[in-house]
Specification:
- α1 (16-25) links the parallel β1 and β2.
- The two termini are 24 Å apart.
- It is globular and about 50 Å long.
- It has helices spanning 16-25, 47-63, 74-87, 99-105, 117-120, 123-132, 146-151, 158-173, 190-196, 207-220, 241-246; strands spanning 6-10, 31-35, 68-71, 92-93, 110-115, 137-142, 178-182, 202-204, 232-236, 253-255.
- The mean pLDDT is 97.
- α1 (16-25) crosses α10 and α2 (47-63) crosses α3 (74-87).
- By secondary structure, it is α/β, with parallel strands linked by helices.
- The structure holds D-glutamic acid.
Length: 256
């Protein structure tokens, strides 16, 4: 069991940002990554469809022998993690926009959240916001159009800049001091985000917190791998180009 892999899934390449932080914190763990990019993006799909896809991805990773599943997608977590936890008998780590952390740090009392429609409309996101951020102003923005470009392997350039201006200009004029990246794809366009945001705005994502939570669960369940250097396998079911690009062609990837 301890040598069994950790399974990570996302609607595409966004979860690679989570894979990187888990690999860094837990270098001995074997990892299987599943990019369900045939069904990308998840952000505008119905709750029922997101639940079905998450269920299918989990079943596939369990068949591959995974000991723990990381739902490396805010949209899938906020719409389906409760069902996953009750349907499968293994530990899950989910990812949610880091509202709590931003609410604790903000000085202006104004925080921007960029996430998908599916995440922003979910009960989990709304109850987290009400609970942790009721005394600050949250400016939410659905990052429409971004995941499609990122999945096409476009991480910078005028198209991304124009979309980001459309989504961020308003919250910048409102004087946010933190921007929460509520989608695992968005750290891949960090360069453009830094170009557009004033220096006073700090970016927060949840990748490190997810890696720490993964470690804590492995320890709690006594399923850490202490013996070898981790091995990594990558699978996708759509097109291969963007996964190869984000991995810098350093890993072999397999079509399913
Ligand atoms: N990476 C995703 C997330 O964190 C999914 C985005 C999408 O497929 O729309 O929400």
């Amino acid at each position: 069991m301890n040598k069994s892999p950790i399974g990570i899934f996302d609607s595409g390449i966004g979860g690679v940002t989570i894979f990187n932080s888990i690999k860094k914190l837990l270098p001995k763990e074997n990892i299987i990554y599943l990019s369900d990019n045939l069904h990308s993006p998840y952000g505008n799909k119905s709750i029922e469809t997101i639940k079905k896809l998450s269920q299918k991805n989990t079943e596939w990773l369990i068949e591959k022998g995974c000991k723990l599943i990381v739902v490396a997608c805010n949209t899938a977590t906020t719409n389906s993690v409760f069902e996953l936890r009750s349907n499968f008998n293994l530990p899950f780590v989910g990812i949610e926009p880091a509202i709590k952390s931003a609410a604790m740090k903000t000085v202006t009392g104004k925080v921007g959240v960029l996430a998908t429609k599916g995440t922003l409309s979910s009960n989990l996101f709304n109850s987290t916001s009400t609970y942790h951020a009721s005394n600050i102003e949250i400016i939410e923005e659905n990052g429409d159009g971004l995941v499609e470009l990122i999945e096409a392997g476009i991480f910078e350039g005028v198209e991304i800049e124009n979309i980001l201006h459309k989504h961020l200009d308003f919250m910048i004029t409102k004087k946010i001091d933190y921007l929460v990246l509520g989608c695992t794809h968005y750290p891949l366009i960090n360069k453009v985000l830094l170009k557009i945001l004033p220096k006073s705005v700090k970016i927060i994502d949840s990748a490190e917190a997810v890696a720490k939570q993964t470690k804590a669960l492995l320890i709690n369940h006594k399923i850490e791998n202490k013996s070898n250097q981790g091995e990594y396998s990558f699978y996708y079911n759509g097109d291969s180009a963007s996964l190869n690009k984000v991995l810098n062609h350093k890993f072999e990837i397999n079509k399913i």
